[in-house]
Amino acid sequence: MIHRSVLLQIILDENTTESSIKKQVAASAALVTEGRYLISLFEAPNSWESRLPIEAYIVSEVLGPIEERNENWEFFGNGAIRSYKHKGSIFNLGTTYQWNILRRSGDKPYSRRHEVSAAFLKKNMIPVSDKVFSRDVANTVWQLR
């Protein structure tokens, strides 16, 4: 079986509507396999201006209305990525992107790790002494075990 997560980048312009966003989301969600993720990314305004509630469209399209949630999907997380421009020692906010992750019900991606052979696992392990093994990688690996 092919396991597929989907990254959906929503580009906003003057022609973007609620229905065009929901259509992109529905098409992308249909491609996600069990236990995998629909990751959406879109540019968020840096000021308090009126805009389309994109996150609400994404969540309501995939999870359904609050009163009747879709049991095949679950909310996984959201956040923001900010970039800054600097002139000397002064940093100004550049671009802000918002991300949302929704997960289709099913086995988690790492649950299959026990299905592969010991030789395959050994071949794909990184020795702790390797330069690519950083503290972040070590922490992530530790959390998965």
Relevant terms:
single chain; alpha+beta; 28% helix; four-stranded mixed beta sheet; 145 residues; 4 helices
**C-alpha termini separation:** 24 Å
In percent, how much strand structure appears in the residues? 25-35%
Percent range of helical residues: 25-40%
Structural class: alpha+beta
Characterize the largest beta sheet: strand count, sense, and whether it forms a barrel: 4 strands, mixed
Structure description:
The protein is 28% helix and 30% strand. With 145 residues, it is of the alpha+beta class. It has a 4-stranded mixed sheet with strand order 1-2-4-3, covered by helices on one side. α1 (18-31) links the parallel β1 and β2. The chain starts with 5 loop residues before the first strand and ends with a helix. The mean pLDDT is 85.
